[in-house]
Amino acid sequence: MADNPKLTVLFEKLRGKTFELDKETMSCGRKDGMDICIKDGSLSSHHCDFIRTADGTYILRDNDSTNGTRVNNVAITEQELKNSDIIQLGAVEVLYDCPAQAGESSVGTRTHTIEIDETKSNLSTVRGLVNFSPFAEKQGRKQVRTHRILVVSLVLLGLIVIGLAVLVFKLLKVF
Question: Exposed (0-12), middle (13-18) or buried (19+): which is 94, by Cβ within 10 Å?
Answer without folding.
Answer: buried
